[in-house]
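Progress report, Aim 2. The chain analyzed during this reporting quarter is listed below.
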Amino acid sequence: MLDDTPTFTGEKNALPNKNSARGFEVIDSIKLNVEAACPATVSCADILAQAAREAVFLLGGPAWLVNLGRRDARTASQSAANTNLPPPNADLTTLISMFAAKNLTPRDMTALSGAHTIGQARCTTFRPHIYNDANINPNFAATRQATCPGPASGIGDDNLAPIDIQSPNRFDNAYFQDLVAQRGLFHSDQELFNGGSQDGLVRLYSINFLAFANDFANAMIKMGNISPLTGPNGEIRTNCRVVN
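Predicted structure tokens for the chain:
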């Protein structure tokens, strides 16, 4: 959440985040109101964790227990963001390995990938899949190509498309139905259903929303407990965009 400054480089412009991660002004607004009511008490990290849960729930998804007491980091690492966030061209082995490095299982990984049932993606992140891969529904590829010109065009990198073509503004299991129909937007999405170890789980989630919702909620709790700063570590930022 930290902005870049002349002497500090945050993570917003890391390759997976640049021109992609949005909504920071929502966190700013929440923080402003929280600070007015209870100064220097609730961290930006806790606000973000709770906002994620509320957004999922308001869009039709599950709720889960959000453990509180996190503190905010005083540093950030663009290189770590580039290294640790799964890229859209990752294969299944790479995805499993990257999640395992954070003590998340393949089941956690597939459930968390279901967050792609909402949101938009930039053309540049899915262009290779819709033009080069064979494991894609040809009608779906043509639909996406209509607003995402080929690489030779030199244009359209920032054109947006819904990650879930069926219901991009509702948290449901349509993302997994998309994968079964070979309508995953990213190469990494379709890797979850491409003759590999996660095919059975994707099929289950595609027909059983409750199974997906339960696994997603449990995986979010696990992810929220990855190396939080607590106690004397870090700080409680008064402005989420800058260190105190």
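The chain is about 45% helix and 0% strand. The mean pLDDT is 94. These observations will guide the mutagenesis work planned for the next reporting period.
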